[in-house]
Design brief:
Layout: H1 3-13, H2 20-34, H3 37-44, H4 47-50, H5 57-66, H6 76-85, H7 89-106, H8 111-117, H9 120-132, H10 134-140, H11 142-154, H12 165-171, H13 180-197, H14 210-226, H15 233-246, H16 253-261, H17 290-299
Helix pairs in contact: 1-17, 2-3, 2-17, 5-7, 5-8, 7-11, 9-11, 10-11, 10-13, 11-13, 13-14, 13-15, 14-15, 15-16, 15-17
């Protein structure tokens, strides 16, 4: 059994030892990526954790909005001022993801409850404010990109013209890349544009969008090649996943997978990040490593829409 298959088996064999959010992330990604039947079964058993009943949809969203769970945030020091400037961003993003997951995975549409709680114009206004605040998008990166794609492309079909992929590409030119955290944020900015365009792996990239996304990958490939040891393994694997999505044949595939083969934890069959100067020393546990490991499995398997 090859290493990605061994890691998949290890996570599934120890699935109940993961906290719920890690269980859901692991299963939902592999179910979307390759129609993994075991993960699909796990997801079917978890719907009640996301939505106890249709009657409680409004209350559930309201609770998530006003009492968002805590989470470890990359580059937290750089981002603090922007989270203070946009205090509703993270809670709203969590609410939008919950609505998206119920719709895309369980065919349960609670968007009507969402807009009763937060009117569409209010959601859209935050998209506009973010896209006009270029430095905020650079630093918030994943959070800003996920939010804008969820509102402007995934959950609502309004075509308001706020989401501009060419602008997002150009924002990548404004980072001080001597700062390793800003290098991380640039990589996540570009990769989450591509992931958002697929509605988190469930749909193809439209042909009209491929040129700008290929430019993003070309730039990332050069950066990762030149700054390899300054970039964490999660970043590198998310880049490979986006290459799979785009059918982009990167010369870095073998190098990154060789690093993975040298990065197996002493505590179990999963990857930790120890071979570069940007290793995530706070994410070395079985649960803390889930994001890295599901990306590795995805990067080594065929995407169902590829």
């Amino acid at each position: 059994m090859d290493l990605p298959s061994q890691i998949r088996k290890y996570y599934l064999d120890n699935y109940t030892n993961l906290p719920f959010d890690k269980q859901f992330h692991f299963a939902s990604r592999l179910a979307a990526w390759s129609e993994d039947t075991t993960c699909q079964k796990f997801l079917m058993n978890q719907k009640s954790r996301l939505l106890p009943s249709q009657k409680s949809a409004h209350a559930m969203l309201d609770e998530l909005l006003h009492n968002p769970p805590e989470a470890a945030i990359n580059a937290a020091g750089l981002r603090t001022n922007y989270f203070l400037q946009y205090p509703n961003l993270r809670p709203l993003m969590l609410v939008l993801f919950r609505v998206r997951h119920l719709l895309a995975i369980y065919n349960t549409d609670i968007r009507a409850h969402l807009v009763l709680l937060v009117p569409y114009e209010q959601l859209h206004q935050l998209s506009r404010e973010l896209m006009e605040d270029h430095e905020a998008v650079r630093i918030l990166s994943t959070y800003a990109v996920n939010y804008v794609y969820l509102v402007e492309r995934i959950l609502f079909d309004v075509h308001a013209g706020v989401l501009d992929e060419k602008l997002l590409y150009s924002l990548g030119e404004g980072y001080n890349l001597e700062n390793k955290e800003k290098l991380l944020l640039l990589i996540y900015l570009y990769t989450h544009c591509i992931i958002g365009e697929t509605n988190f792996y469930v749909g193809k990239i439209p042909d009209a969008k491929k040129t700008v996304y290929n430019k993003m990958l070309l730039r990332l490939e050069t950066l990762i090649h030149d700054r390899y040891d300054d970039i964490n393994l999660d970043n590198k694997l998310e880049f490979l996943v986006c290459c799979k999505i785009m059918g982009y044949k990167t010369t870095l595939f073998g190098r990154i997978h060789q690093e993975c083969e040298q990065s197996i934890s002493k505590e179990g069959t999963f990857l930790v990040d120890t071979l570069n100067s940007a290793g995530q020393s706070n994410k070395t546990s079985f649960a803390g490593s889930e994001h890295r490991n599901v990306l590795y499995i995805m990067s080594a398997t065929n995407w169902q829409h590829g």
